[in-house]
Design a protein that fits this description.
By secondary structure, this protein is an alpha+beta fold. Helices cover 23% and strands 29% of the residues. The termini are close together.
Length: 99
């Protein structure tokens, strides 16, 4: 299993709109080859931070999705005026070992 974790912090008080965009997401990844699930985390201590976690059967499935038309379409709901705090955005990749 392959897990992609994206983290970012909203700079311009649009975090409520970002949260709503995630709640209303079009679910275009859900039918993608190899997609397992997605979770979005928003810490109570700092609601401007977000962590997006997606689980995939393998890295190839994730990278295929990430370069697809549906990936670009899935970001249409992001608030147009969204600004992120520089140097807070990162993506990390993990291989699942055990539970």
């Amino acid at each position: 299993m392959f897990i992609a974790v994206s983290r970012f912090t909203v700079a311009n008080n649009t975090h409520d709109a970002v949260a709503e965009a995630f709640l209303q997401r079009p679910r275009l990844a859900d039918d993608s080859e190899g997609f397992i699930r997605m979770e979005v985390w928003n810490p109570e201590s700092d609601p401007k931070q977000f962590m997006l976690i997606t689980w995939w059967k393998n890295a190839e499935s994730f990278h295929s999705w990430h370069h697809s038309h549906n990936y670009r379409q899935s970001h249409q709901g992001i608030p147009k005026n969204l600004k992120l705090i520089p140097n807070t955005t990162r993506i990390e990749y993990y291989s699942f070992l055990c539970d």
